[in-house]
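Render this sequence as a predicted structure.
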Amino acid sequence: MREVKVTKDFINSKNTSVLYESGNTKVLITVSISDRLPRWLENSDSGWVTAEYSMLPGSSGSRVPRKSYEGGRSKEISRLIGRSLRAVCNLKLLNGYSVTVDCDVLEADGGTRTASINGSWIALNESFNKLVEKGEMNQNPLMNHVAALSVGIVDGEYIVDLDYQNDSNAQVDLNIVLNDNFEILEIQGTAEKKPFSKEDLDKLFEITKPEIEKIITIQKS
């Protein structure tokens, strides 16, 4: 796994901010909390957590249009991040709160969606702890940690945490999202050039688990 660096309060804002770096991949995560629930949750006893993911224009080698969020890829990644966070959050304890996690990629070198999930948990935990300290919430709604990594087969080798070079040459490309019990929240995978076996999938899963554990240790610290 590439070296991970976490910088809390990266920007001067009343909203929680975290800069999550995995190698050369850098994602800025901010958390905004409001009392305006989605329409379908009005008059319910539940809160909501959602996410938006976007790449800044200069985050990759060629300019990314500012309207890229409207494209399918950004929306799909946003939904992945949101699902992953909601899976470890007790929404009943969020009653009355709507939480938006914004993930803006400052520099993309592979694994931006997994870095976004890892940093988002840290930012959410910070935000919820602040609400508990202020007496605005009785307890932190997070029930588990959630962490994610890309993993793949490149030139016949099993590699965790693919950078752009590895990702663009991978025969198999997976994104694995786990909680701290190593239960699966989501697996996204594809054979880029040729099919892969169940044995390949099992091996990729097993080599990812100890690296996921390292990320969870970082989150705890």
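Summary. The CA atoms of residues 57 and 63 lie 5 Å apart. The beta strands are 4-8, 16-22, 25-34, 48-55, 98-107, 146-154, 157-160, 170-179, 184-191.
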